[in-house]
Amino acid sequence: MSVRSPVRSAMSSARESRRPHGWSPSDEPILGDVEAPEFVLDGVLAAGAVVFAGERGLGKTSVLLPMMMAVAGVIDYPFKASIRRKVFYVTEDIEQARRIIAAMHGHGLITVGEQELQKMFRLCPAHRIPISEATLYPKVLVGDYESNERVDGSIHKAPPVVVLDTVNTTLQIDNLNDNSEVSQSISSLREAFGSIPLITVGHVPKASRGDAKKASFNGAGAWENDTQQTLYLVQESGQRYLVMGKTRFVPDYSEFLIKSQLAEFTSLDKLKREVVTKAYYGIPEGISKLEKAKAQEEAKVAYSRKAWEDLKGRVLAEITLNSGQGVGDIKNAVVGSGQKITDAITVLEEEGFIRVEKDGRAKKLYPSNQNDAERYLRESNGE
After folding, report:
1. Domain formed by 296-380, architecture
2. For residues 146 and 181, is the Cβ–Cβ distance under 8 A?
């Protein structure tokens, strides 16, 4: 009986370990040139599979569409795309998209002519198609890679970006709540799209408004789990914010304040008449947590000031309409905190809008000047 040499066994094991395998180690030098994260929009949108979600009716398209036009290099925008790409924006409402673009054009943000705009930014009508058909789309885009010059003079062919706004209106998936089915669909899309960035737009439940940490894509969680980046459009204290969820890079900002812009422009109705149309679009501004807290506090202060002026107006209205009442009568007639109503009476007296006359131990309240009181009430009501 032959005994196997330990040396031969080790050599045999080494040869076996060098056999090709899906997990075989990379031969790339660990300390060689490190590849930087690739972006669609520098520091904001990663190049890869991205989820962009928000509550229904919160204006996701009005925020995302300008971002994509910046990626195409066709508008003046606060964030830049170092790599210029063509954009294929699949939307359920092309006319809404055109109105948003018209609004930006009316404000002078579009920096190219119609021909260049049409070349770099394409609007595509949404149709619900099966995943098997969606995976063929990259073959349609083979001629739409955009040339970008590297610092050494060579050319980088940048793949286009595809936006599906929204998932529900573009992809035919039997059960959007089935994690297994959704995960398999996303896997098929990612494999087919390869280096082509894919941005999917979806809804989060109403219950998640104002708290991005609780936000979750309507339906299966696989939409978020199987992508490189998630972003959520939320509303807090009357302001819209774009909040970073999962990322594979370290962003300069984790939150963006959305500044809504309203534009008016002339359009044609179904009777070919010229009518004035209004449309909003949103521009993000990166903010720190401190800046966000400050903005929220200012919003609260503004609301408190408005509520205070409203209370003073209601107290003055009651005194003007029913002069000669006592403080207790005013408290019974005006809805609000008793102490705040007392404070309002004191301030109105100090400001000269009312006078207080003693009737024995009781105090009676009268408007100092009927005209001044009525003017104050009109101004407080915004008239």
Report:
1. Orthogonal Bundle (1.10)
2. no
Say if residues 35 and 27 touch (Cβ distance below 8 Å): no
Q: Which residues contact 55 (CB under 8 A, 6 or more apart)?
A: 203, 204, 205, 206, 208, 209, 233, 234, 235
pLDDT confidence tier of residue 209, bands split at 50, 70 and 90 = very low
Q: What is the pTM of this model?
A: 0.72
Residue 182 main-chain phi, psi, to 5 deg: -65, -45
Same CATH topology for 39-287 and 296-380: the answer is: no
Domain 39-287, second-level architecture: 3-Layer(aba) Sandwich (3.40)
Q: State how far the Cα of 368 lies from the Cα of 65, in Å rounded to an integer.
A: 56
> How does pLDDT run across 212-248, given as a tens digit for each residue?
555 556 555 666 777 889 999 998 877 899 999 989 9
**Where along the chain do its domains lie?**
39-287, 296-380
Contact 91, 125 (CB under 8 A): yes
Contact 257, 241 (CB under 8 A): yes
* pLDDT given at position 48: 93
Q: List Cα–Cα distances, 59 to 39, 87, 99, 232, 349, in angstroms.
A: 24, 20, 13, 12, 46
Question: At residue 130, what are phi and psi to the nearest 5 degrees?
Answer: -65, 155
Which percentage of the chain shows pLDDT scores above 90?
52
Distance in angstroms (rounded) separating the CA atoms of residues 362 and 7: 110
161-165 and 87-91 strand pairing: parallel
93 contacts 59 by C-beta, under 8 angstroms: no
Question: What is the rounded CA–CA span in Å between residue 225 and residue 219?
Answer: 12
Single-letter amino acid, residue 348: L
At 238-289, the pLDDT tens digits run 789 999 998 999 998 989 999 999 999 999 999 999 999 999 999 999 987 7
Rounded mean pLDDT of 178-186?
Answer: 84
Q: Measure Cα distances from 65 to 72, 194, 237, 258 in Å.
A: 11, 23, 24, 13
β-strand pairing of 362-367 with 354-359? antiparallel
